[in-house]
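Researcher: We're teaching a course module on how sequence relates to structure. For the next exercise, students receive a sequence and then see the predicted structure as C-alpha cells, so they can try to spot secondary structure elements on their own. Here is the exercise chain.
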Amino acid sequence: MSDDSRPSPSAAPSAGRTAAVIPAAGRGVRLGPGAPKALRALGGTPMLIHAVRAMAASRAVSLVVVVAPPEGAAEVKSLLDAHALPERTDFLVVPGGQTRQESVKLGLDALPPGHDIVLVHDAARPLVPVDTVDAVIEAVREGAPAVVPALPLADTVKQVEPAGAPGEPEPVVATPERARLRAVQTPQGFDRTALVRAHETVTGDVTDDAGMVEQLGLTVVAVPGHEEAFKVTRPLDLVLAEAVLARRRLNDGF
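Model: And here is the predicted structure for the students to work with:
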C-alpha cells in the first residue's frame, strides 16, 4: 500500500459509510517486555495487521484509521505498506495519545466527512470474525446509537471489597445474577455524532467507548459476540490465538 496507489481518505465519501478506528498506541505490559502489544507477531504477522484485516474484511468498512504510538507512526505506516490489504479499503495512520481515550479521540478527529458509522476495535483482538463486525454495523444502521458484541459469562461473578494489599483475602459483598451479565468485546459500533459528543463531554475514567455513550443517557445495545474475538493480553492468550489461527489456516484456508 502506498499513498499513490490508494485514493486519498480526505476525499469526500458517499453518505453512510463505515470507518473503523483501531487504537494501537499501548505498550501491552502484561505480555512482557519487547515490542508494543499490537506489533507482536501472531502466526508470523503482527497482531495489528490481523486486526486491520478483520475490519477490512467487512465490505461495509471503507476506511480504517490506525492510531499508532506517538513515536511510531512512521513504523506502523511502513508495516501497513508492507502487507497485503484489501484494495477496496483506505487506510490512515495517525499518532496517538497517552491514554486509550485520547487515542480514540485523535482517530475520530482524523475521520473525513461522510462516515456516519464508526467502529472502535482493539488491536489486541486480532481474530474477530467478519460476521461479528457486520452484525455490529447492521445494529447501528437500524438505529442504535451504540452497539457492543458480547458473550454470556461462563463463571459465577463475585463483587468484592478490594484488599488493602495485594494477595490479602477480599470480602465478598455481592453475587450478581450471572444471566444478566455479559463480557463485552470489540468492535464496538456507534453513530458518529453520538461517539464524538461522548468524547467531547465525558472526562472521567472509562474502560470502553460504549461506557462513555452510556454516560450521555443514550441506549447501548448488545449483539452476540464470538469466542474467537478474545483479547490477547497475557502470554497464554497468545498461545490460544496461535492455535485458533492454525486451525483457520488448516480448515478454512485463512
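Model: If you want an answer key for the exercise: Confidence is low (pLDDT under 50) at residues 1-15. The chain is about 30% helix and 20% strand.
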